[in-house]
Amino acid sequence: xxxxxxxxxxxxxxxxxxxxxxxxxxxxxxxxxxxxxxxxxxxxxxxxxxxxxxxxxxxxxxxxxxxxxxxxxxxxxxxxxxxxxxxxxxxxxxxxxxxxxxxxxxxxxxxxxxxxxxxxxxxxxxxxxxxxxxxxxxxxxxxxxxxxxxxxxxxxxxxxxxxxxxxxxxxxxxxxxxxxxxxxxxxxxxxxxxxxxxxxxxxxxxxxxxxxxxxxxxxxxxxxxxxxxxxxxxxxxxxxxxxxxxxxxxxxxxxxxxxxxxxxxxxxxxxxxxxxxxxxxxxxxxxxxxxxxxxxxxxxxxxxxxxxxxxxxxxxxxxxxxxxxxxxxxxxxxxxxxxxxxxxxxxxxxxxxxxxxxxxxxxxxxxxxxxxxxxxxxxxxxxxxxxxxxxxxxxxxxxxxxxxxxxxxxxxxxxx
Length: 416
Description:
Blueprint: E1 4-6, E2 9-12, H1 19-29, E3 32-34, E4 37-40, H2 42-51, H3 60-63, E5 70-74, H4 81-90, E6 105-108, H5 110-117, E7 124-127, E8 130-131, E9 145-149, H6 152-163, E10 171-174, H7 189-198, E11 204-209, E12 226-232, H8 235-241, H9 248-260, E13 264-272, H10 278-292, E14 298-302, H11 308-314, H12 322-334, H13 353-370, E15 376-378, H14 383-393
Parallel strand pairs: 1-3, 2-4, 2-5, 5-9, 10-11, 11-12, 12-13, 13-14, 14-15
Antiparallel strand pairs: 6-7, 8-9
C-alpha cells in the first residue's frame, strides 16, 4: 500500500459494527499518517463536510494539494430506496461521495452521454469501493476527500443478486472513482473481487489503474476473468501532470508482469495531453510498450471534460504544442462561449475535431508501425469522429470494443 499523509481521518460509526471492517482499517492505518483521527456520526460528518469544506474546490490541478486529502472510512449500508431518500434530505452534505454508505455501483447510460456530452459510449455498470484518489493528476475531477468503503465481504455477497438483473453485461469496470490498487494488499479488494469473478463463467472484472503496485495480483487465481487496463501517457506527462503516479515506464513494467501472470492487459492512452513534444514522446512510449506487451485493445482519448477557465487552472498552457495552445487561447479570448460545436464546454470535447483527428491519426499510424493488426478504439468520441475513423478501425458506433465496454471480453469476435 502507498504511504499516505492526511490532515484528518474520520471513521463513520457504522464501521465499528463489523469486526472485519475494523481489522481492514487497522491494516491500512499502519500506512497512513494523520494529524487527527476521529470517530463520527452522520450528524457530525454532515457538519464537518460543510465547516471544513471537504467537497470544495475544482479539479485537482486547480485546488487540491497532495497532503490535503481527508480520508473517511465508511461501510456500505444497503438502504431501501425510501430510507435513502429520507437520509439524503436529513444529511444533504452526505448525499454524494459515498458518505451515506451508498454508491456501490453506477449506471453509465449511452443515451444520456450522447445527448449531454455528444459522445459515443456504451451502457454499462461500474463498481465502486471508494471515491477519491491520491495520485494527484492535474486534470482529474477528484476533490480533496477520499471515502474508502470497508465492508467488502458484504459487498461481494450482494454481487450475485445484482448481476442477475443485467445478464447481458459481461464486463464490470472497477474502479474509476479511485485507484484501488494503491491500497493493496492491505485493503484486500483485489483478492475478493478477482476471486469472485474467477468463479463466474461469463463475467469479467476490469481493474482500472495507473499504479505499478501489482505484485499482490500475480499469484491470485484469476482464471482469466480479470482484465487489467492501464491509463498510459508519455514521460513528461507522467512525471509532471500525473504527479504521484508511477511514471509511464514503471506502468509498462507492471503491465508486463501481469501479462506474464496470465492476465489480459489493455492500455488507454488517456487523456492525451498535447505538450510541445507530444509526438516524439508518444512515439517512444508506443515503441517501448508494444515491444514488451501484447494488449488485446488500445483505446485513445484526447484531453477534455473542461472549459478554458478550468484548463487554465489545471495546466501551464505554455507547455502545450503551439497549435493546441493557440486554439486554447482563442477559446479563452471568447470567454468560454455557450455549448455548441465544435467547442463544447459543457460536454466531453475541448479541442476541435481537426486537432483531435491529428492526434488519432498519429496514434493509429504509430501503433500500426509496430503491430498492423492491433485493435484500436476511440473513447467517448463524437459521431463525426466515428464517421472519419470507424471503417479504418473496423468498427461502428453500434458495434465496437474498447477498454471498458460491457461486451469487450475474451470471445468477442472484434478481439479475435
